[in-house]
Design brief:
Layout: E1 5-9, H1 30-39, E2 49-61, E3 64-76, E4 82-97, E5 103-109, E6 128-134, E7 138-147, E8 150-161, E9 176-182, E10 188-189, E11 193-196, E12 200-204, E13 207-218, E14 229-231, H2 247-251, E15 274-280, E16 283-297, E17 301-305, E18 311-316, E19 321-328, E20 332-342, E21 348-360, E22 367-373, E23 378-382, E24 386-389, E25 393-396, E26 401-411, E27 423-425, H3 435-464
Parallel strand pairs: 1-9, 11-14, 24-27
Antiparallel strand pairs: 2-3, 3-4, 4-5, 4-13, 6-7, 7-8, 8-9, 8-10, 11-13, 12-13, 15-16, 16-17, 16-26, 18-19, 19-20, 20-21, 21-22, 21-23, 24-26, 25-26
Length: 469
């Protein structure tokens, strides 16, 4: 493949738009990549196909409208019977390097002119393939295999073209980039349709895939899509405990007793501290330990604690910029971007330059709130050291969103031996912090003494002016 780059990456924990096999640990080998590429290359059959684009869904975010289109693909076999059916919506968040060396995240949506050339039905020996082409040279596909009584996804393939200046206006690297992602979901019984209305996220390398309103059935029998469904975990209802009826609550007549006093809301506790890291190859290049809490003020103030147990870390390391992206349960995305500055002619420091926060609707993947501040200058420390602040700190992202940090210890550059370097502590943690009120008290004491002395001198002068002759 010329003028392109190929990555084979395991999917991060999540759910898949189509049934699939569990993700393998670590990256796949080049032979696996070649096999996957061959399996998912362009294929043609005598079967006819029919595809329809549904009405666009407008997703409202703070920064504007995000437009994404639902795609319905109905593949026919030689007898004009449906053999593969798929209907879904998806969006991609892609991190790329800009011309000035910074890393930016852009959104890639399906377009109204999407096609599905190369989609095939599959059989007992050949995998089924759902393939979609859209925009300026972008494409996505998934191949689905059949095994006895089940079918399941194998690899998803995303090719995005950084020559598309509308999506990648300042990309440093030009041309198509292809990424293979192992489908992490489990198998589905034949003659059963896989359904997932709620949104879910699959992450790999620099890609975040968001899917919702998914309906898929491969190897359709007798040309009719099954009415029997397999639901994704996000769609499965959780039953609330029921209270059995008693003679008291079944026959009691209305009374005039005063209602109980309302229970005051339980205060939100400080968030748990999470440990996050990034690797470049086999070497750790970014370390972070922090508890995170969001303060979102829209209709009413809302405090959201980020749960480290459900949060996945991703990002990019670099020599002058580094980005840590945290995804908490497919509903909260937080990105921290660090940069290097020259403190003097021979001394360099790193600092926090940008924080962006995105809150997603877990039902349909739409953006509830989005905030970004790219003009910060926080958490600075000498390059080669780490920054530590155990006390609570507040980052103002915009007028509606704040990020509170607790037990912070971070090193975005020059990590050695998977350990934090010597830390530079914030003033709030410093042992000299207690001197501040003492210094203020001493200054006030001197000011009082100075005023008293001025008062005495002033009285003496006034008495001198009224001496008798």
């Amino acid at each position: 493949m010329t003028a392109s780059e190929v990555f084979v990456a395991p999917a991060r924990p999540g759910r898949s738009p189509c049934p699939g096999v569990p993700a393998a640990a670590g990256s796949s080998s080049s032979s696996t990549a070649a096999a996957a590429a061959a399996a998912m290359g362009p294929r043609r059959s005598a079967a006819s196909s029919r595809g329809r684009l549904l009405l666009p869904l407008l997703l409202l975010g703070v920064s504007g409208f995000f437009q994404s289109y639902a795609v319905e693909v109905d593949i026919k076999d030689a007898s004009n019977a449906t053999c593969l059916y798929a209907n879904w919506m998806m969006r991609f968040l892609i991190t790329y390097e800009s011309n000035n060396g910074d890393y930016k995240t852009t959104t890639l949506n399906l377009s109204s002119s999407a096609t599905h050339n190369g989609s095939v039905c599959g059989n007992d020996t050949q995998a089924a393939l759902v393939a979609v082409q859209f925009g300026e040279g972008h494409s996505w596909s998934i191949n689905i295999t059949k095994n006895n009584e089940t079918y399941q996804g194998d690899f998803m393939t995303l090719t995005y073209n950084t020559n598309d200046t509308a999506v990648f206006p300042d990309a440093k690297r030009k041309g198509p980039v292809t990424i293979f992602i192992k489908d992490p979901a489990g198998p589905v019984q034949l003659n059963t349709v896989f359904v997932c209305h709620n949104s879910f996220v699959i992450e790999a390398e620099n890609i975040t895939q968001i899917f919702w309103n998914v309906t898929v059935q491969a190897f359709v029998q007798n040309g009719t899509v099954s009415k029997k469904e397999t639901r994704c975990p996000a769609d499965r209802p959780t039953s609330a405990p029921t209270v059995p009826p008693t003679s008291a609550n079944a026959t009691t007549a209305p009374t005039t007793a005063a209602p109980p006093a309302p229970t005051p809301p339980k205060p939100v506790e400080n968030p748990d501290t999470g440990n996050y890291s990034l690797k470049s190859g086999n070497k750790t290049c970014f370390l972070a330990t922090v508890g995170l809490q969001l303060n979102v003020s829209q209709d009413k103030p809302l405090l959201i604690n980020i749960n480290p147990k459900t949060t996945v870390a991703d990002g990019v390391c670099g020599n002058t910029t580094a980005t840590l992206k945290l995804n908490d349960g497919n509903s909260t995305l937080i990105g921290f971007t660090f940069a290097v500055k020259n403190a003097s002619a021979s001394v360099q420091k790193f600092y926090l330059r940008e924080v962006n926060v995105t809150l997603l609707n877990h039902l349909n993947g739409s953006v509830i709130s989005s905030a970004d501040n790219n003009n910060l200058s926080k958490w600075d420390a000498f390059l080669g050291s780490s920054y530590m602040c155990r006390k609570e700190q507040t980052l103002q992202i915009n007028e509606n969103v704040q990020v509170h940090t607790f037990n912070l210890w971070i090193q975005p550059f020059l990590v050695e031996a998977n350990k934090f370097a010597t830390a530079e502590e914030c003033l709030a943690d410093s042992d000299l912090n207690f001197l501040i009120p003492i210094a203020v008290g001493v200054a006030l004491g001197f000011l009082i003494i100075l005023v008293f002395i001025s008062y005495i001198i002033g009285r003496r002068k006034s008495r001198t002016g009224y001496q008798s002759v």
